[in-house]
Every structure is written in C-alpha cells, then in structure tokens.
Amino acid sequence: VQYSNLLNAYSSINITKLDVLDEMDEIQIGKSYKIEGKRLSPGTMPSTMDELSKIEVEYETMPGWKCSIAQCKTYNDLPENAKKYVERVEELTQIPVSWIGVGPDRNDMVGKGFDY
Q1: What is the reported pLDDT for 116?
Q2: Sign of the C-alpha dihedral, residues 15, 21, 25, 27?
Q3: Distance CA 47, CA 60 (A)
Q4: For 105, which DSSP code?
Q5: Rounded mean pLDDT of the chain?
C-alpha cells in the first residue's frame, strides 16, 4: 500500500471485508519488506524478479476482536481491537481510512471521521 500510495497519492483508503477477520484470535499486518536481512525503506519495492523472489515480509501481530461487527453502524460501535487495527493500518500507511466494510452487503459500511 505504501508503494501504491507513492504512485497514486491517495487522500484516503477503504478497508473492505473487515468482518471476515471477526473470529481470528490474532491478525498479522505486513509492515515492511526485507531482502537478505536488509529492511527496505517504506514504499520501496524490488525492481527485479530476482529481488522479488528474495522478499521476506516482516509482520506485526495484533489481537483479534472475536465478535461480529455486522451490526456496527458507526466507527465507535466497532470493538476496541478492530479500531486499533484500523488505526494501525493508518499509521503504517500514513493514509487515513474513510470507509470500513462490516458485512456482505454493499451498504454494510461504516464511515470513519465523519457521520454517514
């Protein structure tokens, strides 16, 4: 996402299908890449297929929320660990999240930072 943001200059992103993580004990977020033990700068992607094949992802593990978010209508309705996950994605990407998918229907969205 960091690399894509360098190319596209996002003003915000959406997190869709957050509800599929409802029952996970822990959630891993890929936060950086390493090649041969050297961490790449944020937003950096390998420039060759050879380098790409050597990529190691450094993960950060966060606790899950272990409950359904399908009935959430506002950001504040989300479980605390779900909000921490969304906020950590914002920190790592340096991009604000505007919408969060909380269920299978196209209208199952929660706005963040504004009233919907």
Answers
A1: 47
A2: negative
A3: 25
A4: S
A5: 93
**97-101 vs 13-15, strand pairing mode:** parallel
Tell me the C-alpha distance between 23 and 33, whole Å: 27
Rg (CA), the chain: 16
Is residue 114 very low, low, confident or very high in pLDDT (cuts 50, 70, 90)? low
Which of 6, 11, 39 has its CA nearest to residue 95? 11
Return d(Cα 16, Cα 6) in angstroms, integer. Answer: 21
Grouping H, G, I as helix, E, B as strand and the rest as coil, residue 93 is: helix
Rounded Cα gap, residues 65 and 21, in angstroms: 8
What does the pLDDT average to over 57-72? 97
